Amino acid sequence: MTPLSGRRVLLVEDESLVAMLAEDMLLDLGCEVVVAMRLDRALTHARTEAFDLAVLDVNLGDARSYPVADLLLARGTPFLFATGYGQHGLDAAYQTVPVLQKPYQAAPLEHLLLRLLSGEDSCRADPTGLPPSCRCHASEPAHRQFRADPTR
Fold first, then answer.
1. If one looks up domain 8-144 in CATH, what number appears?
2. pTM of the full predicted structure?
3. H or E, element range at 16
């Protein structure tokens, strides 16, 4: 049993194969997953259901997931963005939100979700220049260190 066991996660991802992969990773972590592949469905879920966490693909076809992010912020639900563009692919208003670099990988996904649960995603100042949600502590073994946003 992990700290993520039983946590309800909203997964917003418009690519079906990518959504299935991410859903499987979340299920393996013990999460209960609700998948939304379109902005309107994601908004409905975010308005009407309670979630512990959310993973939002930034680009949903010709739409962006920012309206969902705004709802989650208003409800106090921790979330991260998933994108292949890294932090630089976000609008300025969302630069402090943790980013999971796509393609999805299990270890960085778990790491960021645990950081969100612990509330460690709020401070971004650090000597390494990386946001706290995207780095492991320097005291950890090198094989466990990774960067969720390699563009930084």
1. 3.40.50.2300
2. 0.79
3. helix 16-28
